[in-house]
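To whoever picks this up:

The nightly regression suite flagged HAD-IIB family hydrolase as changed. Nothing in the input moved, so I suspect the structure step. Input below, exactly as stored in the fixture:
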Amino acid sequence: MDGTLAPTDDPITAQVACKLRSLERQGIRIVFISGRTASYLAGLARGIGICQPLVAGENGGVIFEPLRKWEKKLEAIPHQIGEVMKQDLLKKFPDLWFQPNQTMLTAAPKDFSTVNLLYQAVQALEPVKRNKYKINRYDDCVEVMPKENSKGRALAVVKEILGIRSEEVIVFGNTIVDLPMKDETNDFLMIGDAAVAEGISNYPCIEEALDYLESNL
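Regenerated output under the current build:
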């Protein structure tokens, strides 16, 4: 979402929302897969006018279909372990905000200049080392998630739900956290240059990537 459909912390533009609605009317199923919560993504989809949204929040940890109120959770950090990690981090960073997740931990400092220090503190957490949890660092937060989960695994589940093949899937991404989805599609469109490799088509902005999609339907 952030950095793909819109620059981080900016709203999705009316132009992009219009293109997504147009694609849905043409029979394209719109699926949002993000580090945001599934409930946030469902609300966002409704807000921009997507009629049949399917979302996978927490980097694929929670897959949710709002219309049917159907939900599937993948692996989750046990609640008790999550609370221990939160308390340990709050001792060093009292102003931390935690995203209300179900399967992973997302910690955001009030002062984004401390993200590197937060990342180092997360790396040193005993539960992270013991359970070999994945750590994702962004400009505004740090995520801790079960090693089994990924956006690629979530997309594989989505493909099974919808009964579609890799050649029927087009993925839009913008960071290395999106790369596991590359194995589930024949068409991976990267917004920006976070990854440049064979099998990845890079575009400077989402508008140009959507234009490519529309011209190849």
